[in-house]
Amino acid sequence: MLTAGLRMAIIPVIVSETSSEAYGIIVLASTIMGYFGIMKSGVPTGTVKYVAEYEEEGGGRAVSKVVNTSLAFHLVVGMIMAIAVVAFTEAGGLGLFQISSANRPRAANVLYIAAGIAVVKWPALTFGQALDGLQRYAENNLCKGVGRVSALGGAIGVALFGAPIELIFLVQNSDFLLNTPLQYQWLRRLKPDVRFMPSDATWDTLWTIGGYSVWMVLSKVARLLLYQTDRIIIGVFLPVSYLTVYKVVTIPFNYIKKICGLFNSAVLPVVSSVEASSGKEELGRFIYLLGRYANALAAALSVLGVFFSAPFIRLWMGPEYVEYAWIAQIACGFQMVWQSNAALVKVFFGSGLVRTLNLIAFVAALVNVPLGIWWVQEIGVAGVVFSTVAASVLSIPLQYVFAFPELNVDRPSYVRALARGQWGSWAVGLALIPLWKPIQAIDGWIELLASGSLVSMTLFGVVAFAAVEGRHRIGAWNFVRSSVVQPFL
Predict the structure, then answer these.
(1) Interval 241-277: pLDDT, tens
(2) Rounded CA gap, 474 and 393, in Å?
(3) Number of Cβ atoms within 10 Å of the Cβ of 126
């Protein structure tokens, strides 16, 4: 929660202390780095998968080989990427974007800093991936949280003291200096036989990870074309300051995606473990329950996003951004469809069935690019957001037709699970329509917090009874009572 708060706080601080264009340059630099990040291929996902599988089979030296091979791979790729970013900048690549002449040198400096960070930061991500493979999510998130809170807090501090955007960007991306040592020590405590040993980095292990990850490269390309390309298109066809508008209006549905992603991130290692220990039959039973619960969460968050995005944006960034809030509201609503198969996608990844799914994602991504270029010239920032939504929604029926049979998923059964997960949120959303105008007129944080809390409790209460199995409700209540209520009694 603290990290999320700081992530949102830093945007208005940087905009007010520098300019909307300056913050747009930071967004653009992160986007360009994301494009060069394609060189990482799917090795991060392969690392999580094979650490989980080898640990289930007994661990030992195999886990150490995966970690060290991934570490070496990312170090080499980070150096190559740094050279590529510097070459891009020196060749005048920033001339593609609508950046004012006063800020162009600073934009180049930000990219040089980003290139240097990548050399160290990318290899360091390996330790977090290994902890995820060991299903130590709490420990890994704690380590990452310490780093992110420190970096974001530091960036806000230097911005308030009038620092240039180069220093703000450097501090904002310095989280790895804290979380990497913590992740490594935690990993060593859990797996004493895993340590930094270059001799454990082998071509055979890389080939194993790469064999799983080759289709993940296509997935990475698809994600870039779906999400990062939006920002590139804005930078080319609109002033870079509009990247700040884009960042603001996409915050609500991106947080929906992130919260759902936290839920779904636990799926890949669990699936790998289930397959290794119990086989496909147990996995089949797992799929329908997962689909129901994942959709219950996504639908509830979507309803909150639709109703509360506009007052939140007004209070957070100021009234000048409210005219764009409708973009956020529509995008949040589409998350009900967008996220409907997201958890099941992780099951495919955990089972190694990624080819068809990634081909579908790539087709949808190819649709997004021309749509985004066309629509951004017609309706501005909204064009790239809606092109991404349209392309993502297009992939849903393709997944049902072409991918589901690979896991022997019964389509009607999955749709019933999806409907049971979502119907409670639909009911509450329809019931809230008469309160639409009062909610949109909220003009104070206390009022927003009070009304948002009341709606959230009602919404999740209805969802819990509509979607959650009775035994799971009882288990959740017992956990809350023993861990939260009783300590205060």
Answers:
(1) 999 999 999 999 888 988 888 777 665 555 445 544 5
(2) 35
(3) 27
- The DSSP 8-state label assigned to residue 60 in this structure reads T
For 143, phi and psi rounded to 5 degrees? -60, -45
- The per-residue pLDDT for range 27-77, each reduced to its tens digit, is 998 888 777 666 656 677 778 778 877 777 666 678 888 888 888 888 888
Which residues are within 8 A (CB) of 211 and not within 5 positions of it... i.e. 6 or more apart? none
HSE-up of residue 368 (Cα within 13 Å, Cβ side): 30
Q: Percent of the chain at pLDDT above 70?
A: 87
Whether the CB-CB separation of 64 and 188 falls below 8 Å is answered with no
Q: Which two tokens stand for residue 444?
A: 């104070």
Q: Is 318 left (phi over 0), alpha (psi -120 to 50) or beta?
A: left
Q: Which amino acid is at 6?
A: L
Predicted pLDDT at 275: 47
**Please, are residues 243 and 231 in contact by the beta-carbon 8 Å criterion?**
yes
3-state secondary structure of 208: helix
* Better-predicted residue by pLDDT, 277 or 311: 311
Q: How far apart are CA 19 and CA 13, in angstroms?
A: 10
Phi, psi values for residue 197, rounded to 5°: -135, 105
Picking from 386, 298, 389, 380, the residue whose alpha carbon sits closest to that of residue 341 is 298
Q: Report the b/e string of 218-256 with b at 16+ CB within 10 A.
A: bbbbbbbbbbbbbbbbbbebbbbbbbbbbbbbbbbbbbb
- Give pLDDT, residue 267: 55
